[in-house]
């Protein structure tokens, strides 16, 4: 009588199949991680850019609002418009609506002489603004507040009717400027320094595949073309004309 041999076949995965499955899972996880990282990077850049736009827009709108009702000033209350390339002081006639809750017991509520101060710090890249009623001191009663995100550069210029000036004092000039220019740059350009302490990062982490470091485009440009270099067009620029500027139209020259 013949004996039957019963063989049991086990259904399972071989070692090769397991390794292939693991490799596919790792590849999928890597792709998902790269996609997520790119999304987070893009989101961070978008938020940073929106903060810069907010800072520039807020600064321009506030300065324009103050200049619409500014005055020349005098030796007692100070200059109506005074500033340089990185700061601006404006005296204007307006009501401090933010103080309305204090009631008429606060004399500052009924005062219509307001002082606004704007300062840009290249070290931090931040614009700070302060606005409040004139209380007899050189500074308004309110503290400085940060305006939006960090910027690379903010420049104020003043037109006296003949040329653009880097600084202006309405008391010394005896008149208001014809116009005030606000120029804003979001990012640095060649030949300028970053407004932070991370300069080494931008010097060492070059976005290039040249691992031998045989040619540095930045260094070459700074050495060979520095004398020919001119600043790029600002990301935001606004020329604000002052309605009450009393200037002889015959003496107004070409703007440059």
Rg over alpha carbons: 31 Å
Give the strand content.
Answer: 15-25%
What is the average of the pLDDT values? 75
Strand order of the largest sheet: 7-6-5-4-3-10
Give the CA-CA distance, first to last residue.
116 Å
Separate helix tally:
5
The largest β sheet comes out as: 6 strands, antiparallel
Helix content: 25-40%
The dominant shape is elongated
Structural class: alpha+beta
Q: Which stretches are poorly predicted, pLDDT < 50 over at least 5 residues?
A: 197-212, 220-228, 248-256
String of helices and strands: HEEEEHEEEEEEHEHHE
Q: How many runs of DSSP E, i.e. beta strands?
A: 12
Give a description of the structure.
The protein has 256 residues and is an alpha+beta fold. It has a domain of 116 residues. The chain has five helices and twelve strands. The strands form three sheets. A six-stranded antiparallel β-sheet has the order 7-6-5-4-3-10. A hairpin with a 4-residue loop joins β8 and β9. The longest helix has 53 residues. The chain is elongated and about 120 Å long. The N and C termini lie far apart (116 Å).
Q: What are its keywords?
A:
29% helix; elongated; four-stranded antiparallel sheet; 256 residues; 5 helices; 12 strands; six-stranded antiparallel sheet; alpha+beta
């Amino acid at each position: 009588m013949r004996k039957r041999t019963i063989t049991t076949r086990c259904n399972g995965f071989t070692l090769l199949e397991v390794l292939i499955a693991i490799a596919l899972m790792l590849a999928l996880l890597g792709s998902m991680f790269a996609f997520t990282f790119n999304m987070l990077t893009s989101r961070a850049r978008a938020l940073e850019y929106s903060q810069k736009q907010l800072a520039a827009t807020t600064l321009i709108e506030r300065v324009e609002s103050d200049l619409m009702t500014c005055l020349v000033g005098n030796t007692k209350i100070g200059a109506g418009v005074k500033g340089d390339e990185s700061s601006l002081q404006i005296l204007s006639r307006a009501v401090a609506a933010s103080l309305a809750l204090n009631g008429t017991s606060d004399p500052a509520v009924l005062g219509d002489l307001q002082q606004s101060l704007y300062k840009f710090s290249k070290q931090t890249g931040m614009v700070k603004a302060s606005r409040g009623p004139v209380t007899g001191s050189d500074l308004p009663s309110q503290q400085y507040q940060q305006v939006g995100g960090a910027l690379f550069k903010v420049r104020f210029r003043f037109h006296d009717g003949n040329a653009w000036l880097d600084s202006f004092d309405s008391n010394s000039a005896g008149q208001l400027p014809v116009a005030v220019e606000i120029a804003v740059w979001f990012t640095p350009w060649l030949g300028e320094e970053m407004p932070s302490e991370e300069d080494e990062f931008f010097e060492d982490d070059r976005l290039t595949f040249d691992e031998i470091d045989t040619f540095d485009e930045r260094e070459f440009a700074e050495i060979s073309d520095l004398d020919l270099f001119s600043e790029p067009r600002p990301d935001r620029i606004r020329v604000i004309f002052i309605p009450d500027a009393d200037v002889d139209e015959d003496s107004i020259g070409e703007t440059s």
